[in-house]
């Protein structure tokens, strides 16, 4: 609740900041302070829900889990601002507006983690999406950015329509929007409701770029300004997943009904894993590779959606944190480089050792090497799927894909460490290096003691 | 506590080494490996008096039932001894060599030592997995940074191969973890036999493939010759002397006791694959002209025999195999040291271009002959004890298996003696005439190796006693 209000207000604050503050550096600092304030406000709510979850007018429910997830989203945004906040200036004039849009997206994410009515789900998805269309097209100088925006908008509105259709069908079958009252699990499966569930699954698959609804992802991520791609591919995607897991594990649950959508989602998961990982192998640009890697990682997160157990909910939180932090870190380094291809990373270890070491840690985390946060993230989603019992085939597909992912992630390490070259970078400040080191330290800390995060759930 | 120290010494020394300059890394590497050896000897002493004190448990991830649980049994102790002796010998041999970015080189070497010791001491399945992966990463960097011309694709293949195998094992670990009644990764709950027999059948393969890639046995061996050839020789020593033992160790510690029925079900297949590996690798070794590749293939053949011996379900054979873990490590490192010495002096690896070294460097010749004979398994050398026990076990399991595997001895004699002949005897040429004899540090290292070879060849009893406790334990559940 606090998070929702504070992020929405912060968006307004940032818009006004654009009016009164002309110094762009200062706007960045304001944004950092404001996101910190949101984080504190969010955590302050923990004490009020100790007695139990708090529901407001049947529309949103604040739980310990939602607060924790909001904290991760806000924390990742804080890291994002600290690492890449200065890059906002390179996109265009209206720096404060970009920050405001990011805060609006965050308020959508906090809604996605708290909704208890299907209407609120719809609102959450829309609030997340619309600012993204603007951010994708914010670079007015390149036509690619406008193309990305238009593509994203057309495809996005189409999928929103499908989501609405799904919600309507479910309403028709059950007569309520309230997640807790749907009662789909009991008794005979209603065909109307099943159609609705399938449509919701398709729409959300689109939002988290699961195959075969992923075709917009590489173009949009590649065309958008890199600094916004970094945010869209991480925090926003995690927000999509929290909506996904909450609606499917919270409402569409039951002996018969789960089996019906589980097979469908299992197939989507397998397709996402295979397409994402295999296509990433053939990319020559690190930015495009990361776009496909985001599809591949979505496949792993979908494993948690498919498996209904406590490992899955723990896993999605850990995965969202591990994946977001690592990807934001890589993007932050990439923004500083002149050349976004793999060759552009050649010899980075010699020219900028700190950047190379931290990037290597982030890449290892994405690949799931032990002692990084990414390992335990993968561990949990795999455990969730193994626990499910009938999904072992999917687990085997997933681990083979994880081995393939090591191939393209390690190409970055090979370029940085083993290839000759003079990777050119923009000037690197000491503060940026310190931030990178802190971020990498968080990745390793969570990789050695994941219990730090798990005990909060 | 000593066990934790064994992991911490190389780990901390390795991390410090990254920040050192000049000859600091060398010195610290030597000091750390000496300290490790001292601690290992201390642990060896404590193992006789108070073995329980070598166990160490600390809370790690309570939510998962994973503990930081390390300990040493006879086999673990023997492999830790092998690790610390090998690293000390390697550091002495390369003491007068100058590596580019020496701090990173020594740092990564020490980190890989920490990972290896971790693998040999872990008594918690998740911890074992973490160390298993960690031992790989520094070696990957070592090979890719200081290796030969084709190092990048070759070591990349090695990395992806072993990573894929490890992930399969992870799935197996998770499955068994979920089956265990108390949801724990501890060794006790893994070995209490809670896995259903029909599950053991397929779980076996998840583990076996991971271990088979590491050993490597046929048909998972294709990464090995290229990697051995392209790696810098000190790293090849670590790879072939110690790292391949991780696979064999894994089978004994984490496969036989955890999935006894699975292992029993598939023992024929595993042995047949191992024996194919012996014959196949020996035949290829005979036609190799590159000395590094020849030794690489000979290593596949020797490992094949050891992995066949594991699955014979025979106490003697298992005991012989464990002793051979140590002896093969010492012998193969001895061979690599000689290769390194020759390569340093002559800058060639092609056997056909060598010859007549015995006249100019009799020291090299003497040591090469001795170590080669140990590698074949001649009586009175350390290689003989293990091979004899393994063959006797294999004989009891199936005479025909033993007969085919026995061909490996003859083939080993063919390629090893052929190598010895081409390197040190025959016509010398302009290049080999320039060979200088051993330096003091090389002489010291090779002498230590030969002493170990002869002592353990004549009096293997202490080694056999050391591993007997592990053998009994494995046989009880298997």
UniProtKB/TrEMBL annotation, chain A:
InterPro entries: NADH-Q_OxRdtase_suN/2 (IPR010096), ND/Mrp_TM (IPR001750). GO terms for cellular component: endomembrane system; plasma membrane. It catalyses: a quinone + NADH + 5 H(+)(in) = a quinol + NAD(+) + 4 H(+)(out). It is found in: Cell membrane; Endomembrane system; Membrane. It is a multi-pass membrane protein. Keywords: Cell membrane, Membrane, NAD, Quinone, Translocase, Transmembrane, Transmembrane helix, Transport. The chain crosses the membrane at residues 27-44, 65-86, 98-131, 152-171, 191-215, 227-249, 261-282, 316-335, 355-379, 391-410, 431-454. Residues 117-403 form the NADH:quinone oxidoreductase/Mrp antiporter transmembrane domain. GO terms for biological process: ATP synthesis coupled electron transport. Its EC number is 7.1.1.-. The keyword Acetylation does not apply. One of its GO terms (molecular function) is quinone binding. NDH-1 shuttles electrons from NADH, via FMN and iron-sulfur (Fe-S) centers, to quinones in the respiratory chain. The immediate electron acceptor for the enzyme in this species is believed to be a menaquinone. Couples the redox reaction to proton translocation (for every two electrons transferred, four hydrogen ions are translocated across the cytoplasmic membrane), and thus conserves the redox energy in a proton gradient. NDH-1 is composed of 14 different subunits. Subunits NuoA, H, J, K, L, M, N constitute the membrane sector of the complex. NCBIfam families: NDH_I_N (TIGR01770). Belongs to the complex I subunit 2 family. This is NADH-quinone oxidoreductase subunit N. It comes from Chitinophaga ginsengisoli. The gene is nuoN.
TrEMBL record, chain B:
The chain crosses the membrane at residues 27-45, 76-95, 102-120, 126-146, 158-178, 202-223, 235-256, 262-287, 294-312, 318-339, 360-380, 400-420, 440-459. It is a multi-pass membrane protein. One of its GO terms (cellular component) is membrane. One of its GO terms (biological process) is ATP synthesis coupled electron transport. Residues 122-407 form the NADH:quinone oxidoreductase/Mrp antiporter transmembrane domain. Keywords: Membrane, Transmembrane, Transmembrane helix. Belongs to the complex I subunit 4 family. This is NADH dehydrogenase subunit M. It comes from Chitinophaga ginsengisoli.
């Amino acid at each position: 609740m606090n998070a929702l209000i504070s992020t929405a207000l912060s968006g307004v604050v940032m818009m006004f900041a654009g009016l009164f503050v002309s110094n762009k550096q200062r706007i960045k600092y304001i944004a950092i302070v404001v996101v910190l304030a949101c984080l504190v406000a969010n955590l302050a709510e923990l004490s009020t829900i100790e007695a139990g979850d708090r529901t407001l007018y049947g529309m949103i429910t604040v739980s310990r889990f939602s607060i924790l997830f909001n904290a991760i989203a806000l924390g990742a945004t804080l890291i994002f601002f600290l690492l890449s906040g200065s890059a906002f200036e390179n996109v265009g004039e209206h720096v404060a507006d970009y920050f405001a849009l990011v805060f609006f997206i965050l308020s959508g994410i906090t809604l996605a983690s708290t909704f208890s009515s299907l209407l609120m789900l719809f609102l959450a998805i829309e609030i997340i999406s619309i600012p993204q269309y603007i951010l994708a097209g914010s670079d007015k100088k390149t036509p690619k950015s406008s193309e990305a925006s238009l593509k994203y908008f057309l495809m996005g509105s189409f999928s929103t329509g499908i989501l609405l259709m799904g919600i309507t069908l479910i309403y028709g079958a059950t007569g309520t929007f309230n997640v807790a009252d749907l009662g789909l699990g009991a008794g005979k499966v209603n065909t109307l409701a099943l159609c609705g569930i399938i449509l919701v699954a398709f729409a959300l698959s689109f939002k988290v770029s699961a195959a075969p609804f992923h075709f917009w992802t590489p173009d949009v991520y590649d065309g958008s300004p890199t600094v916004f791609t970094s945010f869209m591919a991480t925090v926003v995607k995690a927000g999509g997943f929290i909506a996904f897991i909450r609606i499917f594990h919270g409402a569409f649950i039951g002996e018969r009904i789960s089996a019906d959508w589980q097979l469908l989602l299992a197939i989507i998961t397998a397709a996402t894993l295979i397409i994402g990982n295999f296509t990433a192998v053939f990319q020559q640009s690190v930015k495009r590779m990361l776009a496909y890697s985001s599809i591949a990682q979505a496949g792993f997160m979908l494993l948690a959606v498919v498996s209904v157990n406590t490992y899955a909910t723990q896993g999605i939180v850990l995965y969202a944190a591990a994946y977001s932090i690592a990807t934001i870190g890589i993007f932050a380094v990439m923004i500083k480089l002149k050349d976004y291809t793999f060759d552009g990373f050649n010899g980075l270890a010699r020219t900028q050792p700190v950047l190379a070491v931290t990037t290597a840690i982030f890449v290892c985390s994405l690949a799931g090497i032990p002692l990084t946060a990414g390992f335990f993230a993968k561990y949990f989603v795999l455990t969730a799927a193994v626990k499910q019992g009938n999904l072992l085939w999917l687990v085997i597909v997933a681990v083979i894909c994880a081995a393939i992912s090591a191939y393209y992630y390690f190409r970055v390490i090979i370029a940085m460490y083993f290839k000759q070259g003079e990777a050119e970078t923009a000037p690197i400040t000491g503060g940026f290096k310190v931030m990178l080191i802190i971020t990498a330290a968080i990745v390793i800390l969570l990789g050695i003691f994941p219990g730090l995060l798990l005990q909060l759930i | 506590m000593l066990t934790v120290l064994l992991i911490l010494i190389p780990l901390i020394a390795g991390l410090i080494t990254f920040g050192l300059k000049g000859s600091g890394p060398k010195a610290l590497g030597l000091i750390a490996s000496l300290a490790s050896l001292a601690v290992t000897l201390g642990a060896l002493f404590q193992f006789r008096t108070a073995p329980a004190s070598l166990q160490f448990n600390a809370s790690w991830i309570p939510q998962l039932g994973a503990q930081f649980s390390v300990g040493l049994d006879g086999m673990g102790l023997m492999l830790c001894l092998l690790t610390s002796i090998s690293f000390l010998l390697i550091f002495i041999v390369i003491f007068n060599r100058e590596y580019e970015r020496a701090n990173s080189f020594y740092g990564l070497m020490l980190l890989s030592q920490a990972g290896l010791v971790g693998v040999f001491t872990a008594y918690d399945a998740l911890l074992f997995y973490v160390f298993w992966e960690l031992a790989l990463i520094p070696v990957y960097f070592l090979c890719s940074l200081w290796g030969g011309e084709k190092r990048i694709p070759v070591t990349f293949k090695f990395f992806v191969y072993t990573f894929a195998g490890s992930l399969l094992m992870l799935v197996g670990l998770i499955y068994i973890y979920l089956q265990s009644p108390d949801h724990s990764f501890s060794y006790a709950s893994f070995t209490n036999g809670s896995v259903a027999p029909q599950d053991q059948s397929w779980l076996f393969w998840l583990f076996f493939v991971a271990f088979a890639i590491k050993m490597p046995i046929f048909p998972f061996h294709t990464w090995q010759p290229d990697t051995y050839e392209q790696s810098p020789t000190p790293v090849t020593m670590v790879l072939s002397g110690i790292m391949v033992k991780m696979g064999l160790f894994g089978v004994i510690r984490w496969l036989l006791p955890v999935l006894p029925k699975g292992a029993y079900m598939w023992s024929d297949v595993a042995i047949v694959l191992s024996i194919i590996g012996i014959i196949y690798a020996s035949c290829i070794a005979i036609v190799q002209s590159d000395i590094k590749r020849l030794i690489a293939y000979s290593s596949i053949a020797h490992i094949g025999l050891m992995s066949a011996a594991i699955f014979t379900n025979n106490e003697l054979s298992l005991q012989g195999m464990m002793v051979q873990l140590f002896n093969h490590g010492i012998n193969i490192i001895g061979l690599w040291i000689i290769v390194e010495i020759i390569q340093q002096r002559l800058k060639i690896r092609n056997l056909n271009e060598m010859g007549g070294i015995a006249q100019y460097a009799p020291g090299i010749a003497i040591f090469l002959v001795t170590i080669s004979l140990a590698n074949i398994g001649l009586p009175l050398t350390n290689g003989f004890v293990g091979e004899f026990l393994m063959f006797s076990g294999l004989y009891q399991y199936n005479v025909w298996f033993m007969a085919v595997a026995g061909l490996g001895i003859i083939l080993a004699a063919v390629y090893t003696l052929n190598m010895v002949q081409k390197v040190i005897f025959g016509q010398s040429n302009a290049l080999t005439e320039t060979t200088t004899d051993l330096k003091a540090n090389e002489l010291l290292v090779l002498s230590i190796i030969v002493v170990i070879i002869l002592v353990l060849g004549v009096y293997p009893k202490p080694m056999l006693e050391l591993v007997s406790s592990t053998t009994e334990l494995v046989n009880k559940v298997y």
